[in-house]
TrEMBL record:
Name of the protein described by the UniProt record: Glycosyltransferase family 2 protein
Ranges that cross the membrane: 243-263, 275-299
Keyword Hydrolase on entry: no
Cited InterPro entries: Glyco_trans_2-like (IPR001173), Glycosyltransferase_2 (IPR050256)
Subcellular location: Membrane
Positions of the Glycosyltransferase 2-like domain: 14-181
CDD domains in the cross-refs: DPM1_like_bac (cd04187)
Membrane-topology descriptor: Multi-pass membrane protein
Length: 325
């Protein structure tokens, strides 16, 4: 691991995706603003460092608050997406906007400990290109959230997906790592599954997760399930392999059943058997439908990817040098 020279502090952008965060925004701005200003005055990051708020098509006044923050603070800039594109796309929009040496991504509700930013920078200075924020305590999350998260991580692990457990999207990335991440052109990117694929020297910092400062979770069960499905189908073809295995087993079972049926016929004890016929129809019908469903998931992905649509459109920008209306 090579140490980075401490003579010139790196420029650092903090990317914050915001969706209907009107309650959490003021506190978020205040806390992140003071963290950034402290780091600037301690000369740990350069004065060009910024906070980039990405408004992910909020329906409340989040964008108005971001614009106001931009006009009052030189270190704040904002990007407004034309409609709600989801947490991961909002993050990509913020990462694409940043030109700094180091980018931190963090949620607007500040459930993740902002004091880790300094430790992440230390790890960066020691030579890491990616520093993962890892929660070592989820006691403030609901039992439901904890259980489903645990199930999801172990399912992913069993399917051979390499991802950092208990790490969401709170991380530091160097310019180089961000540029590489932005080379992944797939739609609906599951960023925390892609980042470990980048390689580079990485390290972890640990923290305990707080409760949301204000407002409600913007991840209802529907969005959680779609993120999980996205994570699995975009990173592994294990479900397809499982279908092949299932297909193989059912073939063997059907051959055995056929032999049994023929023997019964030769013995002259047929006619009855309606039950077994019905069971086989239902069984194979079910298996086929299940398989079709999983295949459909991948076919759907191919369909979406071949269209190669842009992931987002920036409607308006505030702050920074390249202001666009
Ligand atoms: N978010 C977003 N777009 C969405 C949903 C969420 O930009 O469609 C943002 C949200 O504003 C927050 C972050 O993603 O900054 C994480 O969301 P949240 O804290 O609600 O998720 P949870 O912590 O409950 O999993
Ligand atoms: Mg949260």
């Amino acid at each position: 691991m090579t140490h980075r020279s401490n003579i010139t502090p790196p420029s650092m952008d903090i990317v914050v995706p915001c969706y209907n965060e009107k309650e959490a925004f003021p506190h978020c701005l205040e806390v992140l603003g003071s963290v950034l200003c402290n780091l600037m005055s301690a000369k740990k990051v350069s004065p060009q460092s910024k906070i980039i708020f990405v408004d992910d098509g909020s329906k409340d006044n989040t964008w108005l608050q971001i614009k106001e923050a931009c006009s009052k603070n030189g270190f704040v800039s904002g990007v407004k997406l034309s409609r709600n594109r989801g947490h991961q796309n909002a993050l990509i929009a913020g990462l694409s906007e940043s030109k700094s040496d180091v980018v931190i991504s963090i949620d607007a509700d500040l459930q993740d400990d902002v004091h880790c930013i300094e430790s992440m920078l230390e790890e960066y200075n020691k030579g890491s290109d990616i520093v993962y924020g890892v929660r070592n305590d989820r006691s403030t999350d609901s039992v439901f959230k904890r259980t489903t998260a645990k199930m999801f991580y172990s399912l992913m692990e069993n399917m051979g997906v390499n991802q950092v457990s208990n790490h969401a999207d709170y991380r530091l990335m160097s310019r180089n790592a961000v540029d590489c991440l932005l080379n992944f052109k797939e739609q609906n990117m599951y960023i925390r599954g892609i980042v470990p694929l980048l390689g580079f020297t990485s390290s972890k910092v640990y923290y305990s997760r707080d409760e949301r400062v204000a407002g409600e979770s913007k991840y209802p069960i529907k969005k959680m399930i779609s993120l999980a499905v996205e994570g699995i189908t975009s990173l592994t073809i294990t479900p397809l392999r499982m279908i092949s295995a299932l297909g193989f087993i059912t073939c063997i079972i059907s051959i055995i059943t056929a032999i049994y049926a023929i023997i019964e016929k030769i013995n002259g004890s047929t006619v009855e058997g309606w039950t077994s016929v019905m069971i086989s129809i239902i069984f194979f019908g079910g298996v086929q439908l299940l398989c079709l469903g999983v295949i459909g998931e991948y076919v759907g992905k191919i369909y979406i990817e071949t269209k190669g649509r842009p992931r987002f459109f920036v409607e308006e920008k505030q702050g920074g040098n390249d202001e666009v209306k």
